[in-house]
Amino acid sequence: CEFICPSSGKPCSCGEHKVHNCENSFGASNIVEHKPISYSEIDGRLCNEKELIFPPELTLRNALPLKLYGYGGIKWYRPLKLSALLDLRSIYPNAKLVAGNTEIGIEMNFKNAQYPILISVTHVRELNVLKIKENGLEIGSSIRLSKLQQILLKIIRERDIHETSSCRAVSEQLKWFAGKQVKNVASVGGNICTASPISDLNPLWMAARAEFQIVNLKGHIRTVCAKDFFLGYRKVDLAQGEILLSIFIPWSWRFEFVKEFKQSHRREDDIAL
Fold first, then answer.
1. Which domain of life is it from (predicted)?
2. Of the residues 101, 120, 139, which one is the last residue of a structural domain?
3. Closest CA to 85 of 217, 187, 244, 191
């Protein structure tokens, strides 16, 4: 009967006394059987055979609007409704909107940018819509890139192939867009409004005839074609107080083909040249 060491995972004799007791006082062999054990490859701790589940009470909890104060007078808000977001935007016209923080974090940490007022848009319901319409797909600006990947794959499977040429191009490009950790937090709208010259997706929005819905402080919505939205280097067609609400991708026409290509130094997790 071999004993498997919980530290190395290999047979050893360090715990034989725990596995069996040989030869009792009457000369009989008394074998004590043990169930197979599993161990952590990180620190050698014994592990339960059942994997821990995510606490269900956390999945059922209701999100709340938040207001936090940070060091040096920094204020951080997390509204839940578009109306509350627009109110905050009117009170703090120079506030920076934050979603995944993948761009603003770099600016603050490496470019010494100062943003005393931050407004998180991750939980605004109206910015998290995903609607499959008769003429195309509507994507809320706060939708995570990883979630967009999932919905695009579903659409590609279910709809006619000629309608999803643009969707397939975006889906293929997302495969090489940063890493999974970044895509789990980065938002569609954040990537668009950054207007980066090395963006993987912005050229595709233009090629796909995408339209951007923009809302102002009074709640009025206007529509701008993607090709007209980008005005220059990190400049977009957003007036003071305006917010990118959603992105609309029309279904491709029959005999219309959209294809993506990315030129970069390496295949994965690299910027586009």
1. Eukaryota
2. 120
3. 217
- Tens-digit pLDDT profile for residues 190-230: 999 988 888 899 999 999 999 999 999 999 999 999 999 99
- Percent of the chain exceeding pLDDT 90 equals 57
In a domain, 219, yes or no: yes
> What does the alpha-carbon distance between residue 77 and residue 98 come to, in Å, rounded to a whole number?
10
57 has pLDDT over 60: yes
Domain extent at residue 81: 63-120
Q: What is the H or E stretch that residue 223 is in?
A: strand 221-225
Asked whether 89 and 241 are in contact (CB, 8 A), the reply is: yes
What is the C-alpha to C-alpha distance for residues 91 and 27, in angstroms, rounded to an integer? 87
Block residue for tokens 């000629």 = 162
CA dist list (Å): 201 to 128, 131, 217: 19, 20, 27
| Residue with tokens 């059922």, as numbered in its chain | 60
Task: List Cα–Cα distances, 30 to 2, 88, 261, in angstroms.
Answer: 15, 75, 69
